[in-house]
Write a structure and sequence with these properties.
By secondary structure, the chain is an alpha+beta fold. The chain has helices at residues 19-23, 57-61, and strands spanning 5-9, 29-32, 43-46, 67-71. It is globular. The structure holds iron/sulfur cluster (SF4) (2 copies). One iron/sulfur cluster is lined by residues 7, 23-24, 26, 28-29, 46, 52-58.
Length: 74
């Protein structure tokens, strides 16, 4: 069953550390270049939304609170 909530990233806060990607137990995040800030390299994206179990481990792993769990839009 699909997760009720999924992570949403605030790329103005994100420091592209990759900790959320490492913490995800089902490897559904992916670091990819979003070109939001030329100084930062790779930002996380929810690449495999269907695999996300909504556990919020990524949210807790983020050192700068750049992730918030939000209701999935159907
Ligand atoms: S909520 Fe859990 S499963 Fe979904 S991206 Fe975050 S760590 Fe991964
Ligand atoms: S843990 Fe937070 S700061 Fe680090 S890449 Fe993920 S969202 Fe960005």
């Amino acid at each position: 069953m699909a997760a009720k909530q999924i992570p949403v990233f605030d790329y103005m806060i994100c420091v592209a550390c990759g900790l959320c990607d490492q913490a995800c137990p089902v490897s559904c995040l992916e670091l990819s270049k979003c070109d939001v800030d030329a100084y930062k390299k790779a930002y996380p994206v929810l690449a495999a939304e269907q695999r996300c179990i909504g556990c919020a481990i990524c949210e807790k792993a983020c050192p700068v609170e750049a992730i918030q769990m939000a209701d999935r839009v159907a």
